[in-house]
Amino acid sequence: MTTTLPDKTLLLDDIAGLRAAAQFVREHDSVALLPLLLPGLDGPDLQALAGHCRFAHAGLLLFPPDTDSLRAQFAACGLDVDTPSHPSVVVRDRLARRHGRDPAELDVRILRPRVYGSAGQRRAVEVFALAVPPHSGLEPIAAYERTRRHEAHLAFEVERPEPLALRGLCAILVRHGARPDGGGYNPHEDGTVLYFTLPADAACDYGRLELYARGDHRDTLAAHLDHPDRFDSPRPDARPGARQPAETLLHLLTGAWTTQALAAFARLDLPDAMDTRTAQRTEDLARATGTHPRSLATLLRYLAMFGAVAEEQEGFRLTELGALLRADTPGSMRPLALMYGGPFYRSFGGLDHAVRTGQPAFDQIFGENHFDHFARDPQLASLFDQSMAASSRMFRPLPTHPVITAAAQAPAAAPATVVDVAGGNGELLGLILTAHPHLRGVLLERPHAVEAARRRLDAAGCGPRCAYRSGDFADVPPGGDVYVLSRVLHDWDDDRCREILRHCARAMPAHADLLVVERLLPGDGSPSLATAWDLHMLCNVGGRERGADHYARLLADAGLELVGHSPLPLDAHVLHARRAGVPEPVLRRT
Ligand SMILES: C[S@@+](CC[C@H](N)C(=O)[O-])C[C@H]1O[C@@H](n2cnc3c(N)ncnc32)[C@H](O)[C@@H]1O
Predict the structure, then answer these.
(1) Where do the O-methyltransferase dimerisation domain residues begin and end (predicted)?
(2) Domains of the chain by start residue, with CATH
(3) Which residue is closest in CA terms to ligand 1's atom 27?
(4) What is the ipTM of this complex?
(5) Dihedrals φ, ψ of 463, to 5°?
(6) Residue nearest atom 19 of ligand 1, based on CA coordinates
(7) How far is Cα 538 from Cα 492, in angstroms, rounded to an integer?
(8) Rounded to two decimals, what is the model's pTM?
């Protein structure tokens, strides 16, 4: 039997390339390097790039037969042999595509041995190491890649990767002849890479530039991969990073696994047991959470694909995204995970019934309307309230809405009143009253919810300025100055909405304003959370999301007039309506 040992000359070539990369990193700095890569770059564009990005590393691909051999190469170049190594997703997938291989065949690791710049700046050489053991059949890949040097690149790290700044930096690079050339999000590191091919007249041996941004910037990445000037084939399904339709469909079809993986992660209290700074061994985590170590590792590896945790050499670490599922974190989204992985998960199993009949699947599966179902179970009712509060980020700008600030100007002797119709657990009313100490509030809710709201508003210190009305939409209290209907109308069909709005109109004095908080369906088919929630409403409550014109018609049918609307976070809007035909301004009743 003959054995093919790795060719020593080629391994020596790898060492020479590694040594040259380390030398390059030591000798260059950002301001001097950028105009070499993008000839003609100067003035404000150079300032913007050099101000936001720092030269971070030179990258290259090596082909060691095994880890020991890679360590020996590091030692030969004076680099730290104990540098930790992580799996590479982006380069592995690109090699797999370029050579028609299954990504699972390719063991590509990333290592970043530290190198210091001439003024002591912390930098690195980024080594992608594709293991090419003897007889592995991977030798042709190594031979091809060694000559083409496709993966050799220079990387700049974006210091504060705000989405706008990141897009601006990409635009400057393109303006100076760099062409978008793939990229990806690496969940193992929670970082986004954007590659560019350098212009042909770049004065260096590296053909590509990488912008590296910590965190998940998949919107910018999508625009980068779709850029009309991108370097690769014009065939959209052939570009690096794009998925074939069958792969895309598989990802979509297994979306339910993701919902359940996140819900199980939350139900098992794993986010609370994990740390965002220090990775933990799965055995330790399993012991702390009463789970089965190998199965826990399977769950965590799956979640790492979506950036909820990051896999490191020592074990798993919680990411910023995963930390949103902690029970005690401000704005925790844990209740949403339990809701979407619990009752709403079951009801979505009956979506075809809802589409066939127009009736909510929830009612068919649980035997009653979801408000009645939740109202009968205190635990579920509380989970529902908490899950509504988990998206209360959309309420934050409301206390400064002109209608609220105008009402807050009323003299202290005759304070204005905000009536929150079906105000849930009082989250929004609490925010408004906390921001405006002279306003008073009335909250109308069904009996079980009134008690939860009372506790919350008391805890927020607003109790003495609040009154409660336990009842139905028909009981909207008269005499308020501002009426609020937040995330209520989308629960109902058009007829019921007209009824609710008529109850409001009847209670509203001539001077009163009505604020309606809802997501608006975009008129141009652009992506919006409203489109997803339209399906959720159909499946679970028999309601729907609507466009602004649709709301204007419903308001008009109830004798109200839509005066305007403005955007809120999470694709929500606040619509401002008044009694129709009432001339403005009308003096408040005092
Ligand atoms: C989707 S929640 C919105 C809660 C709150 N306004 C918010 O934005 O967080 C809808 C609310 O309508 C209330 N509701 C349902 N049917 C009602 C009725 N017939 N009368 C009064 N409130 C009702 C529910 O109790 C629930 O709190």
Answers:
(1) 250-325
(2) 8-245 (no CATH), 254-329 (1.10.10.10), 346-389 (no CATH), 392-579 (3.40.50.150)
(3) 424
(4) 0.99
(5) -45, -50
(6) 472
(7) 10
(8) 0.62
